[in-house]
Design a protein that fits this description.
The chain is mainly alpha-helical and 385 residues long. It has 20 helices and four strands. Helix 1 packs across helix 14, helix 3 packs antiparallel against helix 4 and helix 4 runs antiparallel to helix 8.
């Protein structure tokens, strides 16, 4: 059975049970309708299990840019849920990538509410995203470079399949043989053959189908990483689910402060720049370093996580790699985190200033349109910045 057919068949048998009442009425749209900010809000709210914020942002984004919304929710399935709840990840990918799955509910917005509820309630595991950081930011060892760079695809498949190989070597081999690397691939888009290897190793067919459907639509390496994460967790049987109480957050305008992603969102990056410039004595930390530290302590926060020994090690190794890659020695990482915590009020003030500026710009645009007797648009699509 083809992956899309397999995934649809699974979802068709599940959707009626998933289509229960959501509960609360949808709140008013946010005052700012920046698609990048709204996409950030959807994903961060799902990580925190905040269904109200997730629905509010997702419905607003649906009216602005449906494709951006569906792409972001598909990323959530593999980047944030992953191996912690395979069925939840499968439902997310089915609804976001297979239009006929959405039609089972009658309309897009009903389907959207269903999968948001599923995603917010799901246990999270972000190992696949951690793998992205390790591959991109840790230097490959001299031994692995000597072994892997000249290796044939069959040799790389053998490394991936071997439980006696170091997990970092298996990780790099999987990326290289899949063809989904930043550099020249060994075999163009060889991910289908990699999925066959994963199936032979015992990765559940539903998870493979989920990754394969995602891989047909997006070119990143997440579908390479998720099955490998499953294999590694399956070796280390000890795992548990931990619930976290989200810390209280400041409001910036009518949005939670954590919406302002300091790495991937234009307004979030502007806030970090303003935060650093606001100090009389310019801090020793540069903006990208501060943004990475804020991201790891705030943007990556999840309400319920799957904890397993190697997964915890990978997460900490990733956070270290994010800061070391940007030039901060490991022994100084804690000092940076502590400094940001102490300076939190100044960061919130900077975010508020950026928000106020954006609201003023909206007001000016409305005034110009009214004076020119032109129709008012919901949002001007922002440039990437």
């Amino acid at each position: 059975m083809q992956p899309a057919a397999h995934l649809f068949h699974f979802f068709q048998g599940q959707y009626e049970a998933a289509a229960g009442p959501i509960g609360q009425e949808l709140l008013a749209p946010f005052r700012l309708s920046d698609p990048y900010l709204l996409a950030s809000a959807v994903q961060k709210a799902i990580r925190r299990g905040d269904l109200d914020i997730a629905r509010r942002a997702a419905h607003q984004l649906h009216g602005l840019d449906q494709q951006r919304l569906w792409r972001r929710l598909a990323v959530v399935a593999l980047e944030d849920v992953g191996i912690a709840d395979i069925e939840a990840a499968a439902k997310l990918v089915a609804v976001t990538c297979i239009p006929s799955a959405r039609r089972l509910f009658g309309d897009d917005l009903t389907a959207l509410d269903v999968v948001l509820n599923v995603a917010c309630r799901a246990t999270k595991d972000r190992t696949s995203d951690h793998f992205c950081s390790i591959v991109g930011r840790e230097q490959i060892s001299a031994e692995d470079r000597a072994l892997l760079r000249p290796a044939s695809p069959n040799a790389l498949f053998s490394v991936v399949a071997s439980s006696t190989q170091p997990w970092t070597r298996r990780l790099r081999s999987a990326v290289m043989v899949s063809g989904r690397t930043d550099g020249p691939p060994y075999v163009p888009d060889n991910i289908a053959a990699l999925f066959e290897v994963y199936l032979e190793l015992g990765v559940p067919e539903l998870l493979i189908a989920t990754c394969a459907v995602y891989a047909e639509r997006q070119r990143d390496a997440l579908p390479v990483f998720v099955p490998l994460a499953w294999l590694l967790r399956n070796i280390h049987k000890t795992c548990n689910v931990t619930d976290h109480v989200p810390p209280e957050t400041e409001m910036v305008g009518d949005m939670p402060a954590w919406v302002f992603d300091p790495v991937n969102c234009r307004m979030g990056r502007r806030a970090v720049d303003l935060f650093l410039k606001a100090h009389i004595m310019r801090p020793a930390y540069h903006p990208r370093l501060v943004a990475a530290a804020i991201w790891n302590t705030e943007s990556a926060y999840c309400d319920r996580t799957l904890n397993w020994p190697l997964g915890d090690e990978i997460r900490q190794r990733t956070y270290n790699a994010d800061l070391t890659y940007r030039g901060l020695p490991v022994e100084q990482h804690v000092a940076l985190i502590d400094w940001i915590a102490r300076e939190r009020p100044a960061l919130t003030a900077a975010r508020q200033a950026v928000w106020n500026s954006a609201v003023r710009e909206i007001g000016k645009s409305v005034e110009v349109l009214e004076q020119a007797n032109l129709p008012l648009l919901v949002s001007e699509k922002p440039r990437r910045g």
